[in-house]
């Protein structure tokens, strides 16, 4: 008989095909340890062997995983973790002529009581905010431009990445020549406006000059990240917005930027870390001058460690800079994890 009605088995007994068959199947799929009734000895022995083999496999997998990732963690501890911990520890000591004496928070109190700290902190925040905003705007504009199906993009895209690929010393030297008295920048300004300012020698112009160089150096990174995010947006969303009559700015603000929010967050966090700790370009162009006009915290740390030879105070300064970057970066990272 078809369907879920009663069925006649071989022994002439009537049973419900819908329930008894399901019970038989579930009983067959039920583990041996859960089946009713006593189990033969050979089944218990087989289960014990399977469990022992499973434990051996799990322990072997753990050993193999440790063997694979152990060297990388050892290298990380030797190169990154140990110097960081040592730097924090040495900030509580006073190192003089090879002798260490514990001074507690004296180095931190000396730094916070110095007027140079607040000046360098302001310059660091000014530098970081200006460079990040400029790099983001330039990178976003280039990403929107190159997100179009233009034949010329595949030829120009490698050229845009060149500033980011250049070593810092090459970029800084190039901009130093551009800002020199007979450099290209002054020649263009003199021919157009009749002025030729001393960019890197003026306390008011030195920081804007290095900010422009920093934007030029890091904007390609934002360009690559944002372009990759924009190209991941489904075309259907953009076409639907165009059908609804949305303007280009509305599409950017309401669809594109929210869709690539995770990419944007990671890009900004990396940009914050790199920009706040940026050293080589500023130092090679101005050495922190003129009159400490570009003395950011990384420059002050370097001068304290290698000009004044005060490693303890330099370590305390680096810890303070680390805490500042963490205070700015961790909340943004937490919001990204929440989304």
Concise summary:
With about 350 residues, the chain is mainly α. The chain is built from 14 helices and four strands.
Distance between the termini: 56 Å
Average pLDDT figure: 83
Q: How would you write the strand order of the largest sheet?
A: 1-2
Into how many domains do the coordinates divide?
2
Give the full name of the CATH homologous superfamily of the largest domain.
Answer: MetI-like
CATH class call of the largest domain: Mainly Alpha
Structural class: mainly alpha
Largest sheet: 2 strands, antiparallel
Ranges where pLDDT stays below 50 over 5 or more residues in a row are 1-36
The gyration radius over C-alpha positions equals: 33 Å
- Overall, the morphology is flat
CATH 2nd-level architecture of the largest domain: Orthogonal Bundle
Per DSSP E runs of 2 or more residues, the count of β-strands stands at 4
Helix content: over 70%
Number of helices: 14
At the third CATH level, what is the topology name of the largest domain? MetI-like fold
Instruction: Tell me the β content.
Output: under 5%
Question: What sequence of helices (H) and strands (E) makes up the elements?
Answer: EEHHEEHHHHHHHHHHHH
**Assembly type of the shown chains?**
single chain
């Amino acid at each position: 008989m078809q369907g879920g009605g009663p069925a006649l088995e071989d022994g002439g007994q009537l049973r419900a095909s819908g329930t008894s068959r399901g019970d038989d199947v579930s009983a067959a799929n039920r583990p041996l340890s859960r089946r009713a009734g006593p189990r033969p000895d050979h089944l218990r022995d087989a289960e014990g062997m399977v469990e022992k083999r499973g434990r051996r496999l799990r322990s072997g997998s753990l050993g193999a995983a440790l063997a694979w990732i152990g060297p990388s963690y050892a290298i990380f501890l030797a190169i990154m973790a140990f110097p960081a911990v040592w730097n924090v520890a040495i900030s509580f000591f006073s190192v003089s002529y090879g002798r260490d004496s514990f001074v507690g928070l004296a180095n931190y109190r000396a730094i916070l009581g110095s007027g140079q700290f607040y000046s360098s902190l302001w310059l660091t925040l000014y530098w970081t905010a200006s460079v990040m905003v400029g790099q983001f705007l330039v990178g976003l504009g280039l990403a929107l431009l190159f997100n179009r199906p233009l034949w010329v993009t595949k030829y120009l895209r490698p050229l845009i990445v060149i500033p980011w690929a250049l070593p810092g010393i090459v970029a800084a030297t190039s901009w130093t020549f551009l800002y020199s008295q007979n450099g290209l920048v002054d020649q263009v300004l003199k021919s157009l406006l009749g002025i030729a300012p001393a960019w890197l020698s003026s306390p008011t112009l030195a920081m804007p000059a290095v900010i422009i160089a920093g934007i030029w150096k890091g904007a390609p990174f934002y360009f690559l990240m944002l372009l990759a995010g924009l190209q991941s947006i489904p075309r259907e969303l953009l076409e639907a917005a165009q059908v609804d009559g949305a303007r280009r700015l509305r599409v950017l603000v309401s669809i594109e930027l929210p869709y690539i929010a995770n990419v944007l967050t990671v890009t900004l966090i990396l940009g914050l870390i790199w920009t706040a700790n940026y050293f080589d370009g500023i130092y090679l162009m101005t050495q922190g001058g003129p009159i400490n006009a570009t003395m950011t915290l990384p420059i002050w740390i370097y001068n304290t460690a290698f000009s004044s030879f005060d490693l303890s105070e330099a370590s305390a300064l680096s810890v303070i800079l680390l805490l500042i970057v963490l205070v700015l970066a961790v909340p943004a990272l937490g919001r990204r994890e929440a989304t």
